[in-house]
Amino acid sequence: MKGSGKRAAVVLAAGDGKRLRSSLPKVLHRVAGRPLLGHVIAALEPLGLDRVVAVVSPRIDELRKSDESLDFGSAGFAIQDPPRGTGDAVRVALEELGGAPGTVLVVPGDAPLLRTETLDALFELHRSAGATATLLTADLDDPTGYGRVVRGVGSAVERIVEHGDATEEELALHEMNAGVYVFDGEALASMLPKLDDSNAQGEFYVTDVIGLLRAEGLGVVAYKTDAVETSGVNDRAQLSAAGRFLQERACEDLMAGGVTIVDPQTTYIDPTVVIESDSIILPMTFLEGSTVIRSGAEVGPQTRIIDSEIGPGATVTFSVVRHSTVGPAASVGPYASLRPGTVLEEGVHIGTFVETKKTTIGRGSKAPHLAYLGDAEIGENVNVGAGTITCNWDGVAKHKTVIEDDAYISSDTMLVAPVRIGKGAATGAGSVVRDDVPDGALAVGVPARIIEGKGNRKKKKPSPG
Ligand code: UD1
Ligand code: MG
């Protein structure tokens, strides 16, 4: 029976993408946090296919091997050199797959809006119709540039004609070929040697396989989807449009899952981001990479969060957070910068113009204004006054600052690392602290003198939550 046995996918990605006018190959251009090719491969993953092979140029192969951020999961790669058309690219892929495997899905690497459900439906129609080939199409008001689906008697699919090769009459057809096909592998392999390049582009077109199959009386059916999903990216305007559609889709999916997004038009969320229900995303916010926003958090307006976790009930406003963790009910901003390695525990407050880096801050501690906290380990219920700086760099190496629980750091304190401020200790305003301060002591002056027993005299508050 057709359609049974192994299933493989071939992603065509070796074209040079001249219309982008770029030194970077087309399928490596990023939208919504991933290269175009990454979106296509991500849509294939849930299908659980036996093999996925991407056909790429030697340059793409070189770039993906040398750039760690280009991770295409378990996909295999085959090299097409030179790019002689989509039909030639499929031939290269079948060689890599070792001949003619059961059923072969062919997808273009420049179609980042394709959905897994649609590809699944295409396989299903192919199986239920017992077809030799099943193609994905859409009706477009303006199909300029795309191949057109030519139908014959009883509206059966007859062939595909490329825009550059079409007659006036064919150009008037509105049904476009999405460049996505499921083929019986053997039938596909048997037709590839029959392709020729006597066409407007002088290339071997995979689209011609459809006409060849029909000429032999073999069954070809089409599955129609919406215009947005089938859009390919061939120039920078289409690249930007694809980004917008992906962004709209991410927002719609999240809103359906119980997330409030106040203005999806100005909210940019990568498809890799996880947001729990009952959180609120305010306008002009960018959520990127492996970011996770827990339930009840409020993020934005005007906030960028990259590869970070925002805890339940936390708020982050007018701020930038990178590779960091914000604990439950913590608050960040306005105008804070949390640099990589920041960990804020429950109820921490980081306020206006505070920068942190590689720093852990314990439950209930605060740095409400104007501070730099780098390479520091800060305990619970610590108050960091305005103007405080951990002087972590001595011109040669970075050093650590430790501030223990219940310490009180007054305004404009310079903590010259390595240095330790003991439990319940305090510093005076404007002090330059070069030596460790024992528990309960007060450090004052420039350089600071140590006075035993005059530490934090502020009444201790109960810790939150
Ligand atoms: C192709 C289809 C067209 C369809 C459109 C949908 C053909 C001949 N035409 O046109 O009917 O409407 O997609 O988006 O197939 N590629 C290779 N090797 C090559 C040439 C291309 O791997 O030698 C890859 C490209 O990187 C790209 C994909 O195949 O990802 C499609 O190629 P592209 O040049 O974008 O074809 P279109 O003109 O868009
Ligand atoms: Mg294209």
Briefly characterize the structure.
The chain has 465 residues and is α/β, with parallel strands linked by helices.
Structure in words:
The protein is an alpha/beta fold. It folds into 2 domains: 7-224, Spore Coat Polysaccharide Biosynthesis Protein SpsA, Chain A; 319-451, 3 Solenoid (UDP N-Acetylglucosamine Acyltransferase, domain 1), CATH 2.160.10. The chain is built from 8 helices and 40 strands. The strands form 7 sheets. Strands 12, 13, 15, 16, 18, 19, 21, 22, 24, 25, 27 and 29 form a 12-stranded parallel beta sheet that branches. A 9-stranded parallel beta sheet has the order 14-17-20-23-26-28-30-33-36, with no helix packed on it. A hairpin with a 2-residue loop joins strand 39 and strand 40. The model has no long low-confidence stretch (mean pLDDT 95). It binds uridine-diphosphate-N-acetylglucosamine and magnesium ion (MG).
